[in-house]
Amino acid sequence: SALTLFLTFSSPLGKIWLMLIILLRMAVVVLAGYPLYQDEQERFICNTLQPGCSNVCYDLFSPVSHFRFLLIQTVSILLPYAAFSIYVLHKVALYIVRMHCLVHGCKGNKGLSSPKDLKELCRSAVVNRLDCGADHLRVLNFSGAYTVHLFFRTLLEAAFAAVQYFLFGFFVPERFSCYHSPCTSTVDCYISRPTEKSI
């Protein structure tokens, strides 16, 4: 897979960091986020009996589900990793075919008529890589693509932080006051576990 190939061509520190990012984000969202937010609307208690008032206040308090927002953020942050891995996979496959052609003298695209032929070429190129001269061997450099991937990941992180701030803020209040139809007066609503959600 692309992830396996990426892990093969990255440094040991990069491998550990990638796995930590993926596992920690998914663990936080699934193990901490879901249990914390699954009963969010049921536990959003307002001091009113006016029908529909609590629902309107909850919609004002949380225009988007916090849990779904965290899930979308996590998946979006992993997209640059996926794009980078696919790029690495593509470049390495082309490099293996070129090396095979240097070793065995391919002419044009002859012998690449099917994916099975391409797999055979790759397998043969890997087996015969020691037959190549040292002048033909080079180390593939992905630093430019890695920098672009880091730039997009940082941009996504900043964008999601800004959206989170404008939608929810960074701290969950203990009490939320709202006045909106069908509420007939200012209503105070209370959020469950605000300190834990802020953390």
Task: Summarize this structure as a short list of keywords or feature phrases.
mainly alpha; de novo design (two linked rop proteins); three-stranded antiparallel β-sheet; 5% strand
What's the structural blueprint in terms of helices and strands?
Blueprint: H1 2-8, H2 12-37, E1 45-46, H3 53-61, H4 66-104, H5 115-127, H6 143-167, E2 175-178, E3 187-190, H7 194-198
Antiparallel strand pairs: 1-3, 2-3
Helix pairs in contact: 1-4, 2-4, 4-5, 4-6
Pfam families: Connexin
Protein name: Gap junction protein
Transmembrane segments: 16-37, 69-89, 150-172
Descriptive overview:
With 199 residues, the protein is mostly helical. It has one domain (1-104, 141-198): de novo design (two linked rop proteins) (Up-down Bundle). It is 62% helix and 5% strand. It contains 7 helices and 3 strands. It has helices at 2-8, 12-37, 53-61, 66-104, 115-127, 143-167, 194-198, and strands at residues 45-46, 175-178, 187-190. A 3-stranded antiparallel sheet has the order 1-3-2, covered by helices on one side. A hairpin with an 8-residue loop joins strand 2 (175-178) and strand 3 (187-190). Helix 1 (2-8) packs across helix 4 (66-104), helix 4 packs across helix 5 (115-127) and helix 4 (66-104) packs antiparallel against helix 6 (143-167). The longest helix is centred in the middle third of the chain and has 39 residues, at 66-104. The model is unreliable at 109-113 and 125-135 (pLDDT under 50).
Q: What is the helix content?
A: 55-70%
As for the CATH topology, it is de novo design (two linked rop proteins)
CATH architecture: Up-down Bundle
Secondary structural class:
mainly alpha
Order of helices and strands: HHEHHHHEEH
The rounded Rg comes to 26 Å
